Each structure stands twice: as structure tokens, then as C-alpha cells.
Amino acid sequence: MTLTAVPGPDGSLRCPWGVAIPDFPAYLTYHDTEWGFPVVAERRLFEKLCLEGFQSGLSWRTILAKRDAFRAAFAGFDPERVAGFDEADVQRLLGDAGIVRHRGKIEAAIGNAGRLLELREETSLAAYVWSFEPDPATLGAPQSLTTSPEAVAMAKDLKRRGWRFVGPTTVYAFLQSMGLINDHVEGCVARPQVEAARAALVRPTA
């Protein structure tokens, strides 16, 4: 199914999901300024992998509303600091009402930080992630897929490396949001901006 861009509060056309929650302005801002714009910064990539894991079974609106609390609770998603969290930190996080208090997801985020430190011995997280950039010609209509061969391959490899809560659907959502795919619908005001940013990006290499 081909999605059609719809007017936002300023009259500009956007992806339907971007204007779906008018009483939560942060959602529109996220759509306009973050989603789909290419990212190579390690902390932002690691943060999004963690938050996509926390989103499993929930909505992105829920996670976005709690993002600042997550950042405070997880030391700004500094991989070295998160990798050093112990059981006392797990208990602290389980008692933090500002985040999603799910022991499995909390422990996965901590464990994944350790796996990221291991990955650094081989390559950077940015180079690793961008090595799974899909060919746009294979993706079809924007927002028509929930996974791709690249997302499946990345999820499989991450799991082989010991990462958790990184299934193919989670990874595909990560690829969309971090700009490895321009999945803004045709006519969306953000689509050409994302395309320009992707065209200007120097892809990271190992």
C-alpha cells in the first residue's frame, strides 16, 4: 500500500504518522528533524539501538516521551559507563519510574554496551552499521516494509556477537530512523531534506 502525505499543523505535507498525535508536539519535531536523517555518531547509534529494544511491544510515542529520563538513567548512553553497570544499577533502573522498567531489556542494554566495546576492537559502530545500508532500489514504496534482507543480516550478526533485543523488525526500524533508508513518503516536507543529507554524507569505513 502506498501512503499519501497529509497536511501538518503548518499546512506542509508530512508522513501520516508524523502528525498522528497533535497533543504531543515532540512527535512532530522528531519526524521533522530526526527521523531518517543520517547518523554516524556512536552514542546516538547506541542510544537508538537501546531504545528500539525498549520499544519492543510498546509505541515509539511512549519511548520518546521517556527519552530524556532514559538518557539520565543510562549515563547519556556512554558505552563505557553503561558496560560497567552492575546489579545495584539494575535495581536502580528497575525502580526508576521515568523509564520502561523491564529487567530483560535493562540487562540487554547493559550487555549490549559490553558487546559494543568488543566491536570497537574490530571496527567502529558507525562503520559496522552503515555496512548494512540497503540499496534504495530494493525497498519499494516508503514505509511499505517492516524488515529487509539487510536488517535480517544485521540482526543475525548482532545476535551472533551476543547482542539482545535486536530482531529484524527492531533493526529495520533502527535503519529507518538513523537514515540508512529514506522512508519519508513522497511529498513529505522532510523527504528531500533527508535525501540531501544522505547525498552529502561521507559513509564511515572501518
Automatic annotation (TrEMBL):
Source organism, top-level taxon: Bacteria
Protein name: DNA-3-methyladenine glycosylase I
Source organism per UniProt: Nocardioides fonticola
